Structures are given as structure tokens and as C-alpha cells.
Amino acid sequence: MPSLEQTYEPGGSRELSAPRLRDDTPERAGLDPEELRLLAQEVHDLTAGDRPWAAGAVVVAGRGPVIAVAEAAGWAVRYKSYDPEKDKGVELPRSSRVPATVDTPFDLASLTKLFTSVAAVQQIERGTLGVDARVGDYLPDFRAAARHGITIRELLTHTSGLRPELPLYDCENDEERLALLQAEPPVGVPGTYTYSDLNLLLLQYVLERITGRTLDVLVHEGITRPLGMTSTAFGPCPGAAATEDQRRPWAKADRGMLRGVVHDENAWSLGGVAGHAGLFSTARDLAIFARTLLAGGSYGPARILGPDLVELLFTPPGLGFALDQPWFMGELSGQGAAGHTGFTGTSLVLDRETDTFVVLLANTVHPRRRPPDNAPRARLATRMARAVR
Questions:
Q1: 247-304, pLDDT tens digit by residue?
Q2: Residue 16: predicted pLDDT
Q3: What confidence category does residue 15 fall into, taking pLDDT thresholds of 50, 70 and 90?
Q4: What pTM, to 2 d.p., does this model score?
Q5: DSSP-H helix ranges across the chain
Q6: How far apart are CA 82 and CA 87, in angstroms?
Q7: Residue 27 DSSP label
Q8: DSSP string, 234-281
Q9: How confident is the model at residue 190 (pLDDT cuts 50, 70, 90)?
Q10: Composition of the chain by helix, strand, coil, percent to 5
Q11: Cβ-contact 54, 343 below 8 angstroms
């Protein structure tokens, strides 16, 4: 029987379908059930106690087409506010709290970058975008990026030299925000790694300019709709897990307790649709996304990328995806693992060597942001690595 790769033609139909995800036992997935039991227990430990790592957390993990763990713990909504004098959340009565479930949507934060990256590689596949083309070729009005010769590859690999962010949330209107982005030059040495939300924001403007469609439409039509990811979209998302009691000085804007609207202040100032943040999703939906990439770009009858373009995504240093980063991938890193984290407490790791994936969604910023602690992310990925027989 021919392989999926042999039957795929860009823009054409396919004769075969990639297997869809199903719930099954660890043994059916070739995974150690004891390690996965401990993985599930860790999710509950993360949400336990008076000052938990996260108010609520969900993990979905598996191998091949099998979801072997789908576990939820804690609360999607636990606090009504944050008390800065006590440095503690003001808890809601238990009757008013909302428990986290496997189907709870979470603010993905920077996991949004993965979808923007895939949308860009789809345009590379179609020939409408050049990976080594200059941003100025598409956005001549972005004068600083054009003058410094920033390329699409540099945006996708965070090697443009752009600073991590700009205070777009302090601008009076969209015209001011756009003017800031258009005038922003690199501050670092081009070609060296500096993680920056601005890279994906500029990429969003490129995609919207060359397609004539907004990013939310591109993600929906090109990724989530064909894959059947019905719980993944840019906000508002009223049923999502709560995030932060967002107030100065610990936050960058005074917005109060947030639920169902994007946490990131810059994405909020841009109307909730941004290349670096803004998507909401469930762990099961993200498992579909991970499975699609592990299967070479296909899921069921849908194909969102050809295998060679998926390979391009994961060619070091990775386009949009971080590769082999033990600080959040644990022992899954080292042989081609790929993924990303999000500021709100999210992470996705897929490992092509073992055909495994781990999705963690959490609201670590509820009721307020703290310095990031990535050890729990790494531990969960390590459990999966040790579960592989």
C-alpha cells in the first residue's frame, strides 16, 4: 500500500486518510501505565494546596493515534480577585467556583505563535511567501524592517534583532500602534536569537497583506476547520478558564479579573487577534494539532501541509517551534522534540522520535502572574519519555 506521502499532491486530493485520535489504554499505545498514572497524579498535585502552581490544569497525552491520558484537576475559576496586601487570591465560595474539565478552553497565550507559523508555512507551500524573502518586499510601509532587511525566516526563528515587545497597550488608537510597529528597528544583532512577540506580529501583517484575509480567518480556514478543531478560535471565549486580576503595577493595564478575553495586553489592544497571542483552545483540540504534525501534516481526510513542509517547520532551529528544549520538554528533548510554552501556563510538546505528544493547559496567572516555573512542564514531559517502552 502506498504511503501518505506518496499519495499527497499539493493542492490535490488524497486517497488515504491519517488515523484520527481515539481514547484507549496506555498498553495499546505501547506506554507504561504506571508512569502515566504518575503523570496524571502530578496534574492534581499542581493544583493542590493554598498556593498551587495553577488554579486549574488539564493534560492530554498519548502516542500515535491513541490518547492515553486525559486528566483535569483544580478550578477553571477559583478566585474573584487578588489581594496585594496579603499577596493572595480572594477565593470564591466553592459553590461559585468552576471546576476545570478536559473540555475547558484555556487562553493559549504564545501557543498562538505555532498557528501563525503554520499559516505562514502554508503560504510558503503555495508559493505566495518566500521563507528567505524580505519583510520589506511585502510591507514596504514597515520602513525600519525594510531598511534593515529583516527576512521571513528571521521572524520565524526569532533572529530578526527586534526587541521582545512594544507598549502597544499604551497607544491611543490603532494608527499609533501601527506607526510604532512600522518604525521599530532591530536593537539586537540580526542573526542572533532574541525571543520577540514582534516577530509574529510582523508576520501577521505580512500574511494579511499577501492573502487579503485576517489572521483569524486564515487560522480557521487553513487549520482549525479542516482538522475539526471546533473548540479553537480567537476570543472572546466566555466559557474559558479565568486568568488574571489584571491591575497595575504587576500588570500593564487595569482590566480586572479576566475570563474569556485575551490575557496578553498587546493582543488585547489589537482587538484580541494577534500573531503572538489570542487563541483559546482545549487540550483535546491541541492533541489533534500535535497529531497532525506528527503524521506529516494530515489528520483524517484533511491535509493542512505536505510532509516536506512539516519537515521544514522542524528543521533546526525550527520555524516558530522550539526544538529540544529540556527546560520545558524534560527527557523528551534531544531527538527532535518540538513545541512551545505560553505565559498563561500552557505548553505543547510533540516528539517525532517516539511519536508522542503532551499538551498541558493551565491558568498559572490566576489570580495574578508570578515568575515562571517551568519545572512542572518538564516533569510531565519526562513522565511521557519514561512511559515509552
A1: 999 999 999 999 999 999 999 999 999 999 999 999 999 999 999 999 999 999 999 9
A2: 58
A3: very low
A4: 0.94
A5: 4-7, 33-46, 112-126, 135-138, 143-147, 152-157, 174-183, 197-211, 215-219, 225-227, 265-269, 283-294, 307-313, 326-329, 375-387
A6: 7
A7: G
A8: ES--TTSPEEEEE-TTTSSS--EEEESS---HHHHHTTS--SSS-EEE
A9: confident
A10: 35, 20, 45
A11: no
Mean pLDDT over 21-38 rounds to 97
Q: Give the DSSP letter string of 33-71.
A: HHHHHHHHHHHHHHT-SSS-S-SEEEEEEEETTEEEEEE
CA pair distance 379, 377, nearest whole angstrom: 6
Cα R_g (the chain), whole angstroms: 20
Work out whether strand 22-23 and strand 66-77 pair parallel, antiparallel, or are unpaired: parallel
For the chain, the first-to-last Cα distance in angstroms comes to: 27
Cell of 283: 487540550
Measured between alpha carbons, how far is 312 from 356 in angstroms, rounded to an integer? 19
Q: 3-class DSSP state for residue 375?
A: helix
Question: Does the pLDDT of residue 169 top 50, yes or no?
Answer: yes
Q: Give the length of the chain.
A: 389
